[in-house]
Design goal:
heterodimer, A: about 300 residues, alpha/beta, TIM Barrel, eight-stranded parallel barrel, four-stranded antiparallel β-sheet, 9 helices, 16 strands, globular, B: about 260 residues, Elongation Factor Tu (Ef-tu), domain 3, Rossmann fold, 2 domains, seven-stranded antiparallel β-sheet, seven-stranded mixed β-sheet, 5 helices
């Protein structure tokens, strides 16, 4: 039996495979295809201070080996989450992590404070990297000072594992990673989507109602892998790799690059059972390479 | 309803006219219960330029032979690939998705299909007929070359046709058909499927009538299971997912209709 468990600060995962926020709903959408007790954790979709309808349709465009989305953080707000959603997901047999977003530092702070009271939520992921909202979101994640300001404010009120999700739409992701580490982040997840756009040439119009949106899927994997590699060289806190992971081989490449865990996002849309195959594939890799613990793969890239 | 991912084998392919394909597919497992109006997300094989599954209505179900059929309009690379499939090829389906049509209390039912919007109507007519309803069916199209399988629909109800060029049935758009004559319109329930412009026109036409109009929407989507929130439609109660809360909606619920 191979040891697949990993640790993100004080958060223990039975294996390094998690699902990415916004691609796995609240988990129940996948119950016909996924045994949640076989996942390291799920990151449920972004929760904000109040109800948001998101952006107008159309808010998705297919692209080569990927897709653009401009959902815009549609959710019913943190109070509704606590009242109506938390009771339904709190007993899931896996780590349930809440992605927290907002338009102001105060909104992030207030949502985090409320989630802190939820006994069965062991961690939050601070979303300072959503490219699809006019205010807040990525605006906080693209400058080191504002990324630090949000992290600092939330760290004061949030006592459990604090993960900060970084935007790739920056000049130096390493600088921002170090900045939020200094403010007390327990872990960093990267990357969120890359800002992109698509045009319908027949209509001479943008495909998305918001003109630009966030690119995800295998198309962004090399960029994500490079950023995970760079960041994990420079920070001491554990890194969670995200970006186009669609199979066990992709997942292992992120671990080798330095990620302690990974999140599967867009691939869930193509194969809702893909996470189960990735967990099995990682176990098979350990068997084939006679490695006892998945932790031995973390950062084990041979660059000699 | 429980959803599945199953492999199907193409047992029959038919290209009626130049821009449609009808596929008959044999399931590798026993078919689960499927409701009329539900759809499948189809993995397009061997087409690197197509990334996402394609949502396609279930055209008909034959439980005895464990087969389903799909009626697909060829509009892009994904659907073109479906038209190139050959007998014995395998297709991977995530299904059955969505809520489908609810059976009504009344038996004064009209089904209206425009263009490839007829896709779910054959199965709906078939299901209604199995439950002892007697729907009338109106199909509209650009011309006679785009109207197919008339004999199939006629098994389940009276079939009325209209084409834009008058090459089959009456001449004009769907809403011009004599069935919509105000003083003779007798239907309590209309189920409509087709391009959004047509659905809105049908709904406008029936405003002020004592008729409920249900439409099947075709918003673009990624996951098909309510996770990505791409396919939302604006309703009187906010954005709702076409994939899980639709694709069939009562037009009273749709904002701006």
């Amino acid at each position: 039996m191979k040891d697949l468990s990993v640790k993100l600060h004080s958060l223990e995962l039975r294996n390094p495979v998690m699902t990415a926020s916004g691609t796995f709903g609240y988990g129940w959408e996948y119950e016909d295809f996924v045994d949640l007790s076989k996942l390291g954790g799920i990151v449920v979709k972004a929760t904000t201070g109040s109800h948001r309808e998101g952006n107008p349709y159309p808010r998705m465009a297919e692209t080569p080996h990927g897709m653009l989305n401009a959902i815009g953080l549609q959710n019913k707000g943190v109070d509704y989450f606590i009242k109506a959603i938390y009771p339904a997901i709190s007993d899931f047999p896996t780590n349930v992590i809440v992605n927290v977003s907002g338009s102001t530092v105060e909104e992030y702070e207030s949502v985090a404070e409320k989630i802190n009271e939820l006994e069965k939520i062991p961690a939050i992921e601070l979303n300072i990297s959503c490219p699809n909202v006019k205010e807040g979101g990525m605006a906080f994640g693209t400058s080191c000072a504002s990324a630090q300001a949000v992290t600092r404010a939330v760290r004061k009120v949030y006592k459990k594992t604090l993960i900060v999700k970084l935007s790739p739409n920056v000049t130096s992701i390493v600088e921002i990673a170090k900045g939020v580490e200094d403010e007390g982040a327990d872990s960093i997840s990267l990357i969120n989507t890359l800002l992109g756009m698509a045009i319908d040439v027949e209509k001479r119009k943008p495909v998305l109602s918001t003109i630009t949106g966030g690119l995800s899927g295998p198309a962004i994997k090399p960029v994500a892998l490079r950023m995970v590699w760079q960041v994990s060289q420079e920070v001491k806190i554990p890194v969670i790799g995200i970006g186009g992971i669609s199979n066990a081989s992709d997942a292992i490449s992120f671990l080798l690059a330095g990620a302690s865990a990974i999140q599967v996002g867009t691939a869930n849309f193509i194969d809702p059972s893909v996470t189960m195959k990735i967990v099995a594939g990682i176990e098979d890799y350990l068997e084939r390479h006679r490695i006892d613990s998945v932790k031995d793969l973390v950062g084990a890239l041979d660059v000699s | 309803m429980k959803k599945f991912i199953h492999d199907f084998k193409v047992i029959k392919k038919w290209l009626p006219g130049s821009n449609h394909v009808i596929l008959h597919l044999l399931c590798s497992e026993p078919l689960p219960p499927i409701k009329a109006g539900q759809f499948a997300e189809i993995l397009i094989p061997d087409e690197p330029e197509v990334f996402l599954r394609r949502p396609i209505s279930i055209h008909d179900v034959d439980t005895k032979n464990n087969t389903i059929s799909l009626f697909v309009k060829i509009v892009g690379k994904g659907t073109y690939k479906l038209s190139e499939l050959r007998v014995d090829d395998t297709l991977n389906l995530l299904y059955p998705l969505g809520q489908g049509f609810e059976f009504p209390e009344h038996d004064k039912i009209l089904l209206v299909g425009g263009g490839c919007g007829v896709a779910p109507l054959l199965f709906l007519a078939h299901s209604l007929s199995q439950h002892n309803y007697h729907p009338d069916i109106l199909i509209g199209s650009r011309n006679a070359d785009e109207i197919h399988e008339t004999g199939e629909y006629e098994k389940y109800g009276n079939l009325y046709l209209i084409t834009e060029d008058g090459s089959l049935g009456e001449k004009g758009l769907v809403t011009h058909h004599s069935i919509f004559k105000t003083d003779e319109f007798k239907y309590k329930i209309v189920y409509a499927c087709g391009p959004e412009g047509m659905l809105k026109a049908v709904n406008q036409k029936l405003k002020g009538f004592d008729t409920e109009v249900f439409v099947s929407l075709e918003n673009t989507m990624a996951c098909g299971i309510g996770a990505c929130l791409s396919c939302v439609v604006k309703t009187t109660t906010g954005n709702r997912c076409v994939c899980t809360e639709g694709p069939v909606f009562n037009t009273k619920e749709l904002a701006g209709w």
